Amino acid sequence: MGSFGRKLKPVGERSCANCPTIINGPAMKRFCTPCAKARSSENRKAWLATPAGKAKAKATRQAWDAANKEDRKAKHDAWRKSPRGRELVKAQYHRFHAAHPEKHREYSARNYAKNGAKQLAKRRQQIKDNPEFWRAYFKARYQREKLRKRGTQMPEPGEAFNARLYENELFAKVIAAIPRGLDDDMRKDVASATILAIIECGSADHIPAKVKVAMRDHRRMFDRYKTVSIDAPIYAGSNRTIGDNLTYPEARPAT
After folding, report:
1. Does residue 15 come out as left (phi exceeding 0), alpha (psi in the -120 to 50 range) or beta?
2. What does the pLDDT read at residue 218?
3. Tens-place pLDDT, residues 167-177
4. 223 DSSP assignment
5. What is the pTM of this model?
6. Which terminus of the chain, N or C, has less C-beta within 10 A?
7. Residues of 12-42 as b/e, b for ≥16 C-beta within 10 angstroms?
8. Where are the domains of the chain?
């Protein structure tokens, strides 16, 4: 006769098969209570991932929904009002709108015919309660729609200033005399230095010559092709200078 129907005798203390917790109980008890609960939860999740488990869970959920319609509706409404629920519902709405534009228009038309008057009255009351917010909202929406119809995007913060700057006659002449192969930032710096030189001398003549001087000064200050002292080392950490190479060419390192 097996051990079923009989109470097993306790055995001595031993460790849990999954952790160092000491347990004391029947011989068939191999895990402590937390580990046993964790294993049971893992086994249940693994079973629910199988086809049989999915079918059983679906049938159980449908039976509970049919028997508790009010509780199901309350839980669903609470979930839709939660941040996660609102995010998922909004994403699902946008996916449906992108995939089925015709159905979306039909649904919107039916919804407006059914609840249009109620929604309009609610919106009017909201506008009446907070007019400044809705005035800014409608203004921003109008600007977005206007740009969308023109097929353009919002301009960068400095584009409007640059557009007005290039309308200036003097700036246009100076920027036209600067080579286009230079970087945009360098061209603007050279143009600014040239205009400053024109203002200081009080004459707008010989703009190309002034541009050459401004380019030379800019390169000496910022560019890698700037003037180097003959006392500078030929490379970082070297004791030899450029002047040493010019004075004693025979002392140059062999190449």
Report:
1. beta
2. 80
3. 778 888 888 88
4. S
5. 0.31
6. C
7. eeeebeeeeeebeeeeebbbbeebeeeeeee
8. 14-67, 100-150, 159-221
